[in-house]
Automatic annotation (TrEMBL):
InterPro entries: DUF2442 (IPR018841). This is DUF2442 domain-containing protein. The lineage of its organism: Bacteria, Pseudomonadati, Planctomycetota, Planctomycetia, Pirellulales. Pfam families: DUF2442 (PF10387). It comes from Rosistilla ulvae. Residues 79-105 are annotated as: Disordered.
Length: 105
């Protein structure tokens, strides 16, 4: 028996909305996926303006929030994987924000 090894590319993101509780991402195949905002602490700590300023990256394979230095992949959303950022990294980022720095390295 032959098994195909051709990889198919999954759906890409087409748009995103963020409120105080969820991140909602529309996908190219017509689905929408929502996840708790708590999964992404940088989005939680972002202002409304920062949350609303995002762009698609990798032909829609991910989303990027430049003001928050946050990247989220569609694959991780579909797999139910929250942010993998360590508590130490988040703490340093929050300290930089509180000192008026943008948090980008």
């Amino acid at each position: 028996m032959n098994i195909s090894t051709v990889e198919t590319q999954g759906p890409s993101a087409t748009s995103a909305k963020v409120n105080d509780e969820i991140l909602l991402v529309q996908l190219s195949d017509g689905r929408a996926i929502s996840v708790p905002l708590a999964w992404y602490p940088r989005l939680v700590h972002g202002t409304i303006a920062e949350r609303n300023r995002w762009r698609l990256i990798g032909n829609g394979r991910g989303l990027h929030w430049p003001d928050l230095d946050e990247d989220i992949s569609v694959d991780n959303l579909l797999s139910g994987k929250p942010s993998g950022e360590s508590q130490g990294s988040l703490k340093r980022w929050l300290e930089m924000r509180s000192h008026g720095k943008n948090g980008n390295n």
